[in-house]
Design a protein that fits this description.
single chain, alpha/beta, Phosphatidylinositol Transfer Protein Sec14p, five-stranded mixed β-sheet, 10% strand, elongated
């Protein structure tokens, strides 16, 4: 632990850090401060109170999870179907303001609405708590939209989607998923906090999002859950307060990750790190906080301590090691395997991306989409380009005599030719789980209606201008 910059200070009195409470409004927090006459601190007594509030069954389940001896939930087909139906119902009644990103994703990729593997991953992460699973799902999409934008919201995040800065951070091993590293076959999310560079919080969170996304490819790991290990040792790139702030700001996303966090373990070799340990504990969700254990000592002492919980990460503890899953070679090998899975995914979706295909899982950027979500449709790149073409021909359409219906039809046909041949775009109508290309006659009717609307707007603007001049 690097103490030279004064990040940490050890003294004889117990350390208290502010309790992060994001569920209260600003007014409630101010009122609490006035009532107490001081800041609302988080102490060991608070942790004890949280533990005492649990029932015997809850504490027993937690201890079994931490030691890796808990039974997995039996997932019969009937059980899964019932939970899926309950989750879909919970999503339907959820407030629209909470699921803006999710609604956009479902509109653009209708199959998401009933995607078994996607919903089951979040149900497993929440141990089939319906409300928690539904909230985690919509929150995951909200964070995906914030970090990667609208263009990637409905797509898998691949290695190629990361910037060079993102890729360098992932390769550093700041946060890495290691398979089968405890006695029950659970995976380990190993984090070296000395490598955390949070000077650009968005880059840091994008990389963490990419690492955690690997859970979608491993259903068995979803069932078993994961063990989180935070290695606090070494000289840090970012300050203690910077790290705490980033974790606190991203708390709503961290608390709803798409995997079951069975237990967490913090590793440190300097008593002064107690400041950071308590800080991390303060910003944790209570469920995660009570599942965390702390280990101090040398590599050997920490190794023995972790083995008591059924965890063997002896090949990860040495930062300078050139072998093992946390070495440069080990991380690069995992990235290569991830890219192979990404390539399989791209090949499976390639037919639906083909502009000549009559069906699509999702629209291409150049496609014109028809549907009830006008806010998304109007801003869709293909729709914007389509309306620009309509605007180019609107004045010509207006000048054609109403009795010359054939000439108006020819204008519509010319626009269709530009859309199909020039833009390589399709007119897509949203069905239950896919988008389908509408027939040419229906597309021509849509274009003609668009021309009439644009011509009417031009006429009204002209009349408005004449009326203002006469005044």
């Amino acid at each position: 632990m690097n103490l030279s910059n004064g990040q940490y200070r050890s003294n004889s009195r117990p350390l208290c850090l502010p309790r992060y409470d994001y569920h209260r409004s600003k007014k409630q927090k101010v009122a609490a401060k006035k009532q107490n006459g001081k800041v609302n601190w988080y102490t060991d007594a608070d942790l004890a109170a949280e533990m005492n509030a649990l029932s015997f069954e809850e504490r027993h389940q937690m201890e079994e999870d931490i030691h890796g001896v808990a039974d997995m939930i039996e997932e019969t087909e009937t059980f899964i179907r019932e939970k899926m139906d309950e989750m879909w119902a919970a999503l339907d009644v959820m407030s629209e303001t909470k699921k803006v990103a999710w609604d956009r994703a479902v509109f653009l990729r209708p199959s998401f609405a009933k995607d078994r593997s996607l919903h089951l991953m979040f149900l497993r992460a929440a141990r089939f708590d319906i409300q928690r699973a539904a909230e985690a799902l919509v929150m995951r999409f909200e964070w995906k939209k914030r970090l990667f934008g609208d263009d990637l919201l409905i797509h898998r995040i691949t290695w190629q989607d990361l910037t060079p800065e993102d890729q360098a951070m992932v390769k550093s091993g700041f946060y890495h998923l290691i398979m089968d590293h405890d006695r029950t076959g659970r995976c380990t999310l190993y984090s070296r906090l000395c490598l955390w560079d949070v000077s650009n919080p968005k880059t840091f969170l994008r990389c963490a999002h990419y690492v955690v996304d690997a859970f979608q490819d491993h259903p068995e790991i979803q069932r078993k859950g994961a063990v989180s290990i935070g290695d606090v040792r070494g000289s840090w790139k970012s300050s203690f307060l910077q790290v705490i702030k980033v974790i606190g700001d991203a708390k709503e996303g961290i608390d709803r990750l798409p995997y079951h966090n069975a237990s967490g373990h913090m590793l440190y070799d300097d008593p002064a790190a107690d400041t950071f340990i308590k800080g991390i504990r303060a910003v944790m969700d209570p469920g995660h906080r009570m599942r965390h254990r702390f280990h101090i000592g040398s590599n050997l002492e920490i190794d023995y301590s972790l083995r008591a919980f059924g965890i063997d990460v002896s090949d990860c503890l040495d930062v300078e090691s050139s072998t093992g899953p946390m070495s440069t070679a080990g991380i690069e090998e995992d990235i290569r395997r991830r890219e192979e899975i990404d390539e399989e995914w791209r090949r499976s979706e390639a037919p639906y991306r083909d502009p000549s295909s009559r069906q699509a899982l999702f629209p291409n950027p150049q496609d014109i989409i028809l549907g009830r979500n006008k806010k998304v449709a109007l801003a869709w790149p293909g729709n914007v380009a389509y309306h620009a073409v309509i605007a180019q021909f609107a004045r010509q359409y207006l000048l054609v005599d109403d009795r010359e219906s054939m000439e108006k039809t020819l204008i519509a046909v010319e626009i269709l030719d530009i859309i199909h041949r020039g833009h390589r775009a399709r007119f897509l109508a949203r069905k239950e789980t896919v988008w389908e290309v509408i027939d040419d006659l229906e597309a021509q009717r849509k274009v003609s209606q668009g021309l009439r609307d644009a011509a009417r707007d031009i006429r009204e603007n002209m009349l408005r201008g004449v009326s203002q001049k006469l005044r």
